[in-house]
Design goal:
single chain; about 130 residues; mainly alpha; globular; membrane; transmembrane helix; transmembrane
Length: about 130
């Protein structure tokens, strides 16, 4: 069963990327409450939405942590992991800057601009050179 459609794996990834970007990634990133309303969350009384988003974020962080651990221990996908980390840290800098400009986050989140900037710089500094 595993890999029975392996010849179409790239096409699968392309279509999966298109659909999940349009249905989940862009709406959750740029209009999370509108997306939540479309998914039938009751706003603003449904505070479980914050728990849901937190758990979703936590799951993605755990996936990245597992990828980092595997790359650190045996070098598997080392360059790819660094690409992912650079993208995460750069986007976190941008996200926290936007939140600071909009004044929609506590000061502790604004301080994280520095943290993510340092992590981004360190990631670039330790980036594995191929060949």
């Amino acid at each position: 069963m595993i890999g029975i459609w392996h010849t179409a794996s790239q096409q699968f990834l392309l279509w999966l990327c298109i659909v999940t970007t349009l249905v989940f990634a862009l709406p959750i990133t740029f209009a999370p409450l509108r997306w939540a309303t479309l998914m039938r969350w009751r706003l603003p009384e449904d505070t479980d939405l914050a728990v849901y988003f937190g758990r979703c974020l936590g799951c993605f962080i755990l996936i990245v942590e597992a990828l980092m651990l595997r790359a650190a221990l045996d070098g598997t996908a080392l360059v790819t992991v660094f690409e992912i980390l650079a993208a995460i840290f750069a986007s976190m800098v941008a996200l926290h800057i936007v939140g600071a400009i909009q004044r929609i986050q506590p000061w502790t989140e604004t301080v994280e601009i520095g943290l993510y900037s340092v992590l981004f710089a360190l990631t670039l500094g330790f980036y594995p050179v191929v060949g």
